[in-house]
From TrEMBL:
InterPro entries: TPR-like_helical_dom_sf. It comes from Flavobacterium frigoritolerans. This is Tetratricopeptide repeat protein. Gene3D superfamilies: Tetratricopeptide repeat domain (1.25.40.10). The lineage of its organism: Bacteria, Pseudomonadati, Bacteroidota, Flavobacteriia, Flavobacteriales. It comes from the Bacteria.
Length: 113
């Protein structure tokens, strides 16, 4: 299936409008659509990870960051100049999210005792 990058860019622009209007769920739907299609740009992944982090939805934040890493590993192999720094940034964010998740699990476990 041929994916039209112009449509994906348009989705990002529309999602930005939704975010500005406070319609976060509509923005998420558009960003997720790009993510599901493997969009080769960072905006959708950056925004989804940030939105999910702000919503304390750590599992979805981790899922999106893992997806972004897969995409940027491909971009890096294609020798696109922006690939490596963004790949490192996504890996860094994932490491922080996984750490946060482990800390939350420890707190939850200690409360159960």
């Amino acid at each position: 299936m041929e994916i039209n990058e112009n449509i994906q860019v348009e989705r990002n622009l529309k999602a930005i409008e939704f975010e500005k209007a406070g319609e976060i769920e509509k923005a998420i739907a558009l960003y997720e659509e790009n993510s599901n299609e493997g969009f080769k740009g960072n905006h959708s992944y950056d925004r989804l990870a940030t939105i999910y982090k702000n919503q304390n939805d750590i599992d979805n934040e981790i899922r999106i960051l893992e997806k972004a890493i897969l995409i940027y590993e491909v971009i890096t192999q294609e020798d696109r100049i922006e690939g490596m720094p963004k790949l490192f940034r996504f890996k860094n964010r994932l490491e922080k999210a996984l750490y946060t998740k482990s800390q939350l699990a420890k707190k939850k476990k200690s409360k159960l005792k």
